[in-house]
């Protein structure tokens, strides 16, 4: 598990290899990740959008931007947390992701970024 704290918001990421499958005569490697967002600050915050950089050892970097996470824009009061699961497909057994969440602080009404640390995606069978 990797973790990082930005402005009192702790991000923890746990990854898992889900298997391989063929689609359009090409093998794909499926990975899941679980992200926990914990508010250790004194202010209520809301996650508004996300930005991902997905690295695949056999492809170019892919950028993904979107509203919220899995269709939600969670509000976190001090001491609260939100956990969600998602996934990605790679064309190789090795990759990584990193990014950030755009959030708003309800006390100051300011937007800020919370860093999601780089996390590795690797199929166990491909490691020595």
TrEMBL record:
The record ties this protein, via Pfam families, to: DUF525
ApaG domain sequence ranges: 3-128
Record-linked PANTHER family: F-BOX ONLY PROTEIN 3, POLYMERASE DELTA-INTERACTING PROTEIN 2
This protein's name: Co2+/Mg2+ efflux protein ApaG
Lineage per the UniProt record = Bacteria, Pseudomonadati, Bacteroidota, Flavobacteriia, Flavobacteriales
């Amino acid at each position: 598990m990797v973790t990082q704290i930005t402005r009192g918001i702790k991000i923890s990421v746990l990854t898992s290899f889900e298997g391989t499958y063929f689609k359009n005569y090409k093998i794909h490697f499926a990975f899941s990740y679980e992200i926990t967002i914990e508010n250790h600050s004194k202010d209520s915050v809301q996650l508004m959008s996300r930005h991902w950089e997905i690295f695949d050892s056999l492809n170019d970097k892919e950028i993904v931007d979107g509203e919220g996470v899995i269709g939600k824009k969670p509000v976190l009061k001090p001491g609260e947390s939100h956990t969600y699961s998602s996934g990605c497909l790679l064309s190789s057994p090795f990759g990584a992701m990193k990014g950030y969440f755009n959030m708003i602080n309800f006390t100051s009404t300011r937007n800020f970024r919370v860093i999601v640390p780089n996390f590795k995606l690797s199929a166990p069978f491909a490691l020595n």
